[in-house]
Amino acid sequence: ELRHRASPWQRNLGYPLAMLGLLALTGISVLIVCFHVLELLLDDAAMPRGIQDASLGQVSFSIFGSFGAALQVILIFYLMVSSVVGFYSSPLFTRLLPERQDTPLTKIIGNCVSLLVLSSALPVFSRTLGITRFDLLGNFGRFNWLGNFSVVFLYNMGFAGLTTLCLVKKVSWAVQAELIRAFGEDG
Questions:
Q1: Is the pLDDT of residue 125 over 80?
Q2: For FRET with 111, which of 25, 46, 60, 101 sits at 20 to 30 Å CA-CA?
Q3: Is residue 161, in this structure, part of any structural domain at all?
Q4: How far apart are alpha carbons 177 and 185 in whole angstroms?
Q5: Which residues cross the membrane (predicted)?
Q6: Is 32 contained in some domain?
Q7: Could you list the residue range(s) of the whole structural domain that residue 164 is in?
Q8: Is there a contact between 132 and 72 (Cβ–Cβ < 8 Å)?
Q9: Any residues with CB less than 8 A from the CB of 27 and at least 6 apart, and which?
Q10: Domain assignment present for 6
């Protein structure tokens, strides 16, 4: 219903640009994780352990300087939003979704706890995937399992593989549906 009420500009320009932006962010995330996997295989320094002497402001945490730092911020924000959307889209947690002016207190508390857990996991998540090397203000990089090569490697490979699988599945199904719709109208 919202798609039919959308203006032609939204349908023909806004939605395709939003989809291309999401595809680009997902692709960049997967590429960064794949490069991090290669770094893990070649260099032990790529492990997401804590930085002992972080010279904040003196050295860029990205090899691309300011552009890379901005890209890291955008990717972390994208991962945050996509993890919240994915959390509330999973069948187990759809009942936790708040309803306007009809949300009981237990559901509000459940939402607060869920968002707190997701936001606390985000620094470790982005650091383990190699999206950023920044340690933030906590000791997130000092977890013992972040020094375990097998755990970090499998975590990165799982993210890259499953994200690529979801991306290919979504894109190929959309293309397949459009082809069926296009050829179905002719036949």
A1: yes
A2: 25
A3: yes
A4: 12
A5: 12-38, 58-88, 108-125, 145-168
A6: no
A7: 149-186
A8: yes
A9: 167
A10: no
